[in-house]
Amino acid sequence: MNIHEYQAKALLRQYGAPVSDGRVVTKADEAKTAAGELDGPLWVVKAQIHAGGRGKGHFKEAAAGEKGGVRLAKSVSEAEELTRQMLGRTLVTHQTGETGKQVNRIYIEDGSDIERELYLALLVDRGTSRVSFVASTEGGMDIEEVAASTPEKIETFSVDPASGLSDFHGRRVAFALGLTGGQVKQCVQLVRNLYRMFIEKDMEMLEINPLIVMKDGNLKALDAKMGFDNNALYRQPDIMALRDETEEDPKELAASKFDLNYIALDGEIGCMVNGAGLAMATMDIIKLFGAEPANFLDVGGGATKEKVTEAFKIITSDPNVKGILVNIFGGIMRCDIIAEGIIAAVKEVGLQVPLVVRLEGTNVELGKEIISESGLNVIAADDLSDAAQKIVKAVKG
Asked: Which residues of this UniProt protein bind ATP (predicted)?
């Protein structure tokens, strides 16, 4: 789960990290009052969406002179006008794709005197199963771009959970960032606070880009992105309260409410599978035979008829789906339950695209019988390879 910048900065402030004073508004009429509560004389007006690259992005049907989702205002009135220009508009960045995201919130904060821009992130390194730090002197840029062009400017190391974090780690970050004097002490404290927050809040990723050195020599987190482990949200009610469902894919949101593991992709073949490993194998074999999966969808081992019905409805709600492949290996999941769910879903939403079903395992004969007697136009498959070839042929002609 991701949160907005203003929410991330509130958490940073709670854990003692230096951030600018700011106000969030949802209506243009609130902007003047919000900006007036800040010191100025420079205000930063920031569109709040769950995507990076806001400053370099553009609004659809932008008027002349409108540039990006992060702009500077030199007066309270100008801050209000910029807010009015951005609210309700669709912001397109390299992370949103051409569809963009609608801006429903604006964050107005005090400007900062920037001397240097740095990069600092914490993330879960799945290779080492540890929390890793990533630090670079190239702040304000996409870290992927830095890694591709100047990888020597990135310092990465992990923290051994057995010994935990020490001041040495903070000094290592400080030296990697080229900090000196009192800045080193500030960095050690910042690293300590960030690591504690990362662990206590069950984060997956924390990115501060840029972390700035101001002209007075002090450090400040100028922007922040945070992602949290969905599987740990049950013990983080304060984080769950920050969830903005309008920023999430509607299909993924609907799937989460039925405890379905769904991730939207860009292909044309919808997949419904039980088991994450089998789902990955199904996606791979679709690609092998020349097509692209439209989603990852694991209905789980104990799915009910209702869950299967909802899963099918979610797949068919994607306008990009030109065909559907159901691939079920019935261990805990019974094939007859899948069959009943498919029939119920088709009767409710209709079937406008080719459907290939491969069933194997518990009650497989009963499942096949239920489908064959349903009168549905279903293409049966004997194994995974056969199923993949049939759905690709049906879609590609």
From this structure: 46, 53-55, 109, 112, 117
